[in-house]
């Protein structure tokens, strides 16, 4: 929705970077995690090219943090996720799933370990703060669960390393993929991680003082001006190319990890205890009836991403839905993530998709659609 038509109110929060994003050309906003997020800085295809060719700065303060501290914080965080955290070091991040008693996915955050018993869950759109506080009530564990004053800013793209070196110096080269450092930038307290929701090389700057949001945004834009930095927003094109999930679209409470092909994030054979373990054991034994796949939609170029689920049919019966779809100008084809009946999930399978009452043919293809081995995001700095 454009900024002219958007009704800003006090019941929905503004990010610490709000004024700067408007100054730098944000034209549209939506609501995510009870906060306004800029979604439009002009042509989304140009935003994609800016991301993969130079660098973009994205206000992702909507990635709210759930902070878990206290003597039993480690035991508690392990209770929330089926991923074995026994090798998670202080200063390290991990992509995790949070599941309910039925094995359904409640969110897929990035987990940061700041201390022995100090954790952040960096969330997609969900109410995990309330879930965690509810779980804690009868857990018998001594923990404190809050939402801290922490607001991420994403710097993503191939020039992001040079911009970060200009901001912080050579120390930035020491941060490995999915690790972080606590840093200070001219009195601005930060946690800086080699992560990001873009499938590109990049960083997230977790601001720990909301009063300094616009200052941080402006400093980063100034540092990046000689490297072609642009204000931007998370790229639907690039995240679908990379097969990254968007919660509420590609996964929800009725989706389990095995349907998403995320078996590696579920440790059923270890002695760890977590919510949903027995349900996930049964699901694994019985097998899943549907599976997430990648699709090429063979029709005219899509005018934009889908804003509703598109029905998939085979032999005149409904066999699933397209959850995320977009035209990739780099791959020069329409690509999509979809949840389908497992009988129709093999590579090369043709399926019929209904787009606004128009029938098109699509084909199951390998995903991720680009850089499947994540060579871009995980490369080392020299």
How do the strands line up in the largest sheet? 12-13-14-11-3-15
**Which CATH first-tier class of the domain at 18-64 and 149-240 would you pick?**
Alpha Beta
* E-strand count: 21
Alpha-beta classification: alpha+beta
Could you tell me the mean pLDDT? 96
CATH fold category name of the domain at 18-64 and 149-240: Gyrase A, domain 2
Helical content band: 10-25%
Gap between N and C termini:
42 Å
Low-confidence stretches: none
Total helical segments: 9
Question: What amount of the residues lies in strands?
Answer: 25-35%
What string gives the helices and strands in order? HEEHEEHEEEEEHEEHEEEHEHHEEEEEEH
Largest sheet: 6 strands, mixed
- Spatial extent as radius of gyration: 21 Å
If classified by CATH, what would the architecture of the domain at 18-64 and 149-240 be? 2-Layer Sandwich
